[in-house]
Amino acid sequence: MADELPRPEPKEIDEKLAIQLRHLAEDAVLRGNPYGEEQCSNCLFYMNPDNKLSYCWHPKLRILVGAAWWCQWWEKIEE
Ligand code: SF4
Asked: Is 20 within a domain?
């Protein structure tokens, strides 16, 4: 009979990062859905508008975000 593998569990680093990211999201009022017409994919800081997941280069965030997410630092892309 094969030995049972231990069930994967989050490590201390994961708990720490989860807390840091939660604070970051709270500061940004980050939401997983659009705010009217505003969403990450049409925000100045969204790196690759064609991708459903992309890097947000806003200096207070610098994380991966979803195209349909939104935060209070959304900024219009000037033509
Ligand atoms: S600044 Fe906010 S709205 Fe703009 S891409 Fe980053 S997370 Fe999305």
From this structure: no
